[in-house]
Design brief:
Elements lengths: L14 E4 L5 H6 L7 E4 L9 H11 L4 E4 L13 H14 L4 E4 L2 E3 L3 E6 L5 H18 L4 E3 L13 H12 L2 E5 H11 L3 H7 L5 E7 L2 E4 L2 E3 L8 H14 L4 E4 L7 H17 L11
Parallel strand pairs: 1-2, 1-12, 2-3, 3-4, 4-7, 7-8, 8-9, 9-12
Antiparallel strand pairs: 5-6, 10-11
Length: 288
Amino acid sequence: MRPAPREASVAVRGAGLGLRRVHFDALLAGIPEAVDFMEVAPENWLEVGGRGGRQFRAIAERVPLMCHGLALDLGGQRPLDRDFLARLRRFLDELGVRAFSEHLSYCADHAHLYDLLPLPFTEEAVRHVAARIRAVQDALGRRIAVENVSYYAAPVTGMSELEFLNAVLEEADCWLHFDVNNVYVNSVNHGYDARAFVAGVPGARIAWGHVAGHHREAVDLCVDSHGAPVIDPVWDLLDLAYSLHGVFPTLLERDFDVPALDVLLNEVETIATLQARHARPARRLAHG
């Protein structure tokens, strides 16, 4: 067994917000005091020029930036796209991005599927995706984080979702991008104990976290929409995560039905309030 990783701590702390074009004018006027860092999908900005590209880079110069990828296809069968990885590395280096994460899923077959699909929870899948994560880390020249994803059809299982996640983190020696809303959504959809899941993740590997809203379709079905306010049970899970694992940087995701910036800042401030409740010496993530 590998030695335990350095306690995850990124070169950011506090509460963050996803960067959205609709808020560019407000952010260019000044980064709100409540926002300690921001996050983007690099695929949306790799080669964007013109006014939008200039505005994006101006904001990126004013606030610590994290990147959360969409297209690496970590769990897929196709060879990794080495050209894309080289361009991604240049982007991360040029903008001084503090950390990069991807989804623990697959998203392509012969072409991009435009969805994040779950991997089978098996030992074979652990070995496969961990090898690809290690290759990505080598190509990018940095340790990455992987995010626990929401899913709706249970894949082939030889272990639980939590066992699978922990096995991948250990085998790949990577960080965890911990999405507590996904834990809640999956616990409803697949009937497991969300609090036990939060307790069971390796806290020392948490690089940063997500909270988001979702849509409740039925008593036993949630859709991870990122299009609604965060609900109290998800805030409670984040509070539990801080109490068990210490305070980690946490970002509010809102991708659809995006309201005015001031509305989102109220939720960002809720993150900060929970963090203050569990204040300890801050953890920071060493590069490498």
